[in-house]
């Protein structure tokens, strides 16, 4: 069977029981006790333990995955039967697979092509990520920070200010400044225990840190450049240049293809999930994976 699609897993996760109007029963196969215990039903159509066992051999899937595949196959074939109005021969696995694959090809894949991703959904993503498409010059900086927060006052803040001044004096004594050096300082227990922390970010004029930080960072132009000690309500900062990203103003029309490319897989999975849910409506699905081990073939253990 060739149904290695997200649809299979999604249909298999419908739940132990889903109730709805009963499907037609005129095409239910005869009972086959030689196939072992019934481990699932789709409408009135049983799925037997030996069928699951055969599916695991053919697909190299786990027993649970094989059971989910078979449940999905029966749902697809039931839908095909309702559309085609004929009674398939359930002893013919190729026919069952063909019915399911034909349904996927005709009714599902046309709805989940890349060009079907709605523009409005892409626009919403564009607005959410607008800062990635429209921004001024961004400076890639490594920072050593002594955080205080706006509420820290009095003696605690004075202590952290002294730590920040000691850090600034230490850095001023160095001949070079690099992100690796800043990270090493923050990892040194002597500094780490004094609430020195390391950050690496793309800093704009006022984001992610304040406009005070942004104004000093904007002056950095080349490797080795370092800001003076900066103080704002959040704490004390020193930054060194690591690179930059030039200003950018990409309109939605320019970003549409890039957004569609990155969003498509997520959208397709969600769309298939919706289609699978609709497909399962009108059927009573029972799945009992816990019976698989109990129904193992003789000589193959439990």
What does this structure look like?
The protein has 302 residues and is of the alpha+beta class. The chain has 2 domains: 6-117 and 259-294, no CATH class; 137-246, Chitinase A, domain 3 (Roll), CATH 3.10.50.40. Helices cover 47% and strands 16% of the residues. It has helices spanning 6-12, 49-59, 63-84, 93-108, 119-128, 130-133, 154-172, 179-187, 189-192, 211-217, 252-280, 291-294, and strands spanning 17-18, 38-42, 45-48, 134-135, 138-147, 197-203, 230-232, 235-245, 248-249, 285-287. The strands form 3 sheets. It has a 4-stranded antiparallel beta sheet with strand order 1-10-2-3. Strands 6-5-8-7 form a 4-stranded antiparallel beta sheet, sandwiched between helices. A two-stranded antiparallel sheet has the order 4-9. A hairpin with a 2-residue loop joins strand 2 and strand 3. Helix 5 (119-128) crosses helix 11. The longest helix has 29 residues, at 252-280. The two termini are 26 Å apart.
């Amino acid at each position: 069977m060739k149904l290695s699609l997200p649809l299979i897993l999604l249909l298999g996760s419908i739940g132990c029981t889903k109730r709805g109007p009963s499907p037609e029963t005129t095409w239910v196969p005869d009972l086959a006790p030689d196939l072992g215990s019934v481990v699932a039903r789709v409408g009135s159509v049983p799925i037997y333990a030996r069928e699951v066992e055969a599916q695991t051999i053919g697909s190299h899937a786990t027993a649970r995955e094989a059971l989910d595949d078979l449940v999905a196959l029966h749902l697809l074939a039931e839908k095909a039967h309702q559309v085609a109005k004929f009674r398939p021969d359930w002893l013919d696995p190729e026919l069952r697979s063909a019915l399911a694959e034909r349904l996927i090809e005709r009714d599902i894949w046309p709805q989940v092509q890349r060009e079907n991703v709605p523009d409005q959904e892409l626009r919403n993503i564009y607005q959410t990520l607008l800062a990635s498409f429209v921004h001024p010059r961004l400076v890639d900086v490594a920072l050593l920070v002594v955080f205080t927060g706006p509420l820290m006052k009095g003696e605690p803040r004075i202590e952290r200010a002294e730590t920040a001044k000691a850090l600034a004096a230490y850095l001023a004594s160095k001949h070079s400044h690099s992100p690796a050096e800043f990270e090493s300082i923050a990892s040194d227990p002597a500094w780490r225990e004094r609430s020195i922390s390391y950050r690496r970010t793309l800093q704009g004029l006022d984001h992610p840190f304040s406009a005070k930080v942004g104004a000093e960072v904007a002056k950095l132009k080349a490797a080795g450049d370092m800001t003076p000690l900066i103080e704002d309500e959040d704490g004390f900062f020193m930054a060194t240049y690591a690179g930059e990203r030039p200003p950018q103003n990409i309109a939605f029309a320019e970003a549409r293809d890039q957004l569609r490319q990155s969003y498509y897989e997520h959208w397709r999975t969600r769309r298939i999930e919706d289609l699978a849910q609709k497909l399962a409506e009108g059927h009573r699905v029972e799945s009992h994976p816990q019976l698989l081990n109990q129904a193992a073939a003789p000589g193959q253990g439990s």
